Amino acid sequence: MIIISACLIGLNTKYNGGNNIKKVFVDFVKHRKAIPFCPEQAGGLPTPRYPAEIVGGNGYDVLDGKAKVINEKGLDVTKEFIKGAEETLKLAKLLHAAEVILKSKSPSCGSSLIYDGSFKGRLIPGPGVTTALLMRNGIRVINSDEY
Asked: What stretches in the chain show pLDDT beneath 50?
């Protein structure tokens, strides 16, 4: 079983209330190969919500207490991002998920690039919070842009 970012199958879980639907991912769910999940909602954040970025590092740094996740209004949402990552890991373990397909560039789900914390659209290398926690636990994370 694969876990997939809920926004990728058309569920309106994206920060702005929209989605990032791609037919290939919808087909995964239709054929019972994947289940959708949104770490940010699981962490207690509403939809829509203010955009957030990691300030001071990447997802590993957030997990290690060296960086924070801040929304564009300046509110610290680190706790919610960590909780969402933990809930995703819990689900992955429950399902014995071999891999997880997550939305690229997200502060939760990004796997190779994330926004730099300036809210100016600049990307830096590194994982989001959920990706970092999953990878630390030996779960393969696939970037949605690879499809």
From this structure: none
